[in-house]
Amino acid sequence: MSTIREHSEARLLVPSLMFIALVVAAVASLGAPLITSVATTFHVSLDSAQWTLTIALLSGAVATPVLGRLGAGPHRRVTILATLAVVVAGSALTVLPLPFAALLVGRAAQGVGLGLTALMMGVARDHLPEGRSAATIALISVVSIIGVGLGYPLAGLLTEFGGIRAAYGLGLFVTAAAFLTAWRSMPVAPEDRSAHVDVAGALVLAGGLFLVLFLASETGLWSHHLAVAVVLAIVAVLLLCGWTASELRSRTPLVDVRAVRHPAVAGANIAMFVGGIGMYLLLTLITRYAQTPHSAGYGFGLTTFVAGLVLVPFSVLGFVAGKLTPRVGMRTDAPLLLAGSAIVVGGGFVLFAAARSNVAELFVAMGVLGFGVGSFTAAMPGVILAVTPRSETSSAMSFNYVVRSVGYSLGSAIGGLVLATGTGTGTGHPFPNDGAYTTAALVGIAAMAITAVTSLALPRCSPETDPIEEPTGGTGRTTTP
């Protein structure tokens, strides 16, 4: 009877983990399709409206390592519920008829939920059988990407019929449902865990990440105030270097930097960083190209909702790849899977560079991108967790997600910078020339080539032969996954 009950609980736990990861990703991405609507509704500039997306990414990047450390300890269930409560409260702020500042606060609170994805992986690894947990972790990684593809068209559709409050209302509904789901399904962490949050380290890391993502988002700062941008970049580097040195000395580090230095983990994070730049770059290029009006001499002038539908192949094929990757991974090394996935994404860039004369070609390129991203994100946890102690799952994957967030932000910024160089003056419209998109695609191809080479260079590791010791602030013993 006990075995039957445990099997039933495991069966309910998996969809719960998927749903929560999907919701937090979709809600955080709601800012992307609503930027223009926010600008017109609140009578602010597009640059100001862009912060409804940027601030969610910022708060997510800052919260992720903190939640990862809290989630490694005995209070993981409380951490998950408290975080979702913050997300629900933020969602309520986005719906209420309040000033623009309140909307930004609400979006920042929603972005905190991005840190839950790694915690969902930790729950899966602790409470599911080994074979089941690996496949579940891969899918959690994938649905966090798919959430972007689902949130975009839904937000566009609701905005067209009910305004931005209707779109944000959907966010409130699904986050409340996620909170109730977590309340019913989240188990407590194993009893032999301890976790201490390095508050000072968290503040220094937050400052460094804020400056990095701020500089990536405010591309105009580099062109109009180069000296200020350079000074801020130097400050960011100093903060992050100081944080790294502090973490190496700490007995209770926020992130186990020694583990991050492991060749497999370090290489995987480099691949995630460069690959994230390329993946988000292509996503940005295709959606922007689809919405460019015919008056620019190219583009299709699609509405927000129809442009969002271009992301459907991305989500569908990304999910398919996520389901297939664990099975392929049983016969293929994870580094090889990462390299192959990077090549697939590079193929999406090639398609976009060579053929974008009709919407169908954009659908094909987006589908190829989705399959490559789905496979890449599903294979990534296998590389890191193969050498990571079970108790450090949330912390290790949290760091990887911070790296991914920074890569995505830089990908968006690089796309904006390349397209800006192709925007002519005195042409009567603010759109770049068609050739600028080809140039950006070539940059993306180079990024994915670097990612593929980095992935192939990763060592083939196994937990039996190459484990990482737990940090001294953990359980006090060496553990293998």
UniProtKB/TrEMBL annotation:
Membrane-traversing stretches: 12-36, 48-67, 79-98, 104-123, 135-154, 166-183, 195-216, 222-243, 264-286, 298-322, 334-356, 362-387, 399-420, 440-458
Domain of life: Bacteria
Membrane topology: Multi-pass membrane protein
Subcellular location: Cell membrane
Keywords (A to Z) from UniProt: Antibiotic resistance, Membrane, Transmembrane, Transmembrane helix
Gene3D superfamilies: MFS general substrate transporter like domains
Protein's UniProt name: MFS transporter
Record organism: Streptomyces silvae
